Amino acid sequence: MAEQGSFFKRLRKGAGDDESEMSFIDHLEILRWHIVRSVLAILVSAILFFVYIDEIFDKVIMGPTRNDFISYRFFCNLSRFLHMGDSLCMPPMKLNLQVTSISGTFMSSITIAIVGGLLVALPYVFWEIWKFVRPALKPTELKYTSGIIFWVSMFFFLGAAFGYFMLAPFTFNFLANYTIGDLAIIDYRPTLSDYLDTLIDITLGAGLAFELPMATWLLSKLGIITPNFLRTYRKYAYVVLLVLAAIITPSPDWGSQLIVVVPLVLLYEISILIAVRVKKKQDEEWE
Fold first, then answer.
1. Which among 42, 150, 180, 211 has most CB atoms closer than 10 A?
2. pLDDT digits (tens, 9 = 90+) for 237-277
3. Rg (CA), the chain
């Protein structure tokens, strides 16, 4: 309760109220307006996406399913540049989607617009959250959070781009060309909603995964993890990353798996460096 009171007191000072301490309801009212502004930003962005839904669907949403997608051409050219033949060239893919409900296309358009609006408005949403939390932070805490919105947004968009340009093409190409049993009795025709769910899960999931350095920074500041902990379990983390790469890549050759696992390994190593930096600053403060 003392910590909660201290938190509210610092929020009150940030709000400029020097006469009386703000009540819990007052803080909820402030939080409500932060949420309202965030939702409005998402809705405005979603409306823009809906207006241009045809172009976005053809060029962005269905991009990973097209044989001339930039990622396919890049990996194929890279394979030949490294004198690996066509080992990184993915086989042609033909993916025909179906809609099983009368409102399927409209609901899919709404889903695309909302998710797209969320992605575009995400930095602003982070900023609104930061505005609410900032008054409760001490000056020393504010010093270590300089540029936090930029770094959180950057890591998320890097992860989303990695998921869209790297994981999604590998995943869809592998699944579309995977066969089992007698092909004559199998009519492979996935639904549009299933495709969208998979693409969204991959993109947003990769974006969240790339927040690992920021999560490491926070957990290190709280003393929950240390550089020694991350180094000790490094070999186990590498095994998990290799297994994940083997599942994602469409072929068992080492080149394809290497392209997927290298960014994940680099992310883990960056997290260790961040933990070392935090530990060093904490030791200097204790001294």
1. 42
2. 888 877 766 665 544 556 556 766 788 788 888 888 888 88
3. 23
Contacts of 59 (CB under 8 A, 6+ apart): none
* pLDDT digit string, tens, across residues 175-213: 777 777 666 667 778 889 989 998 998 888 888 878 888
Residue 191, SS3 per DSSP: strand
98: which DSSP letter?
B
Beta bridge partners of 274: none
Among candidate residues 58, 252, 72, the one with its CA nearest the CA of residue 170: 72
Beta-bridge partner residues of 191: 98
Distance CA 129, CA 127 (A): 5
Closest by CA to 113, choosing from 161, 164, 174, 51, is 51
- pTM: predicted TM-score of the whole model, two decimal places: 0.77
Strand pairing partners for 98? Answer: 191
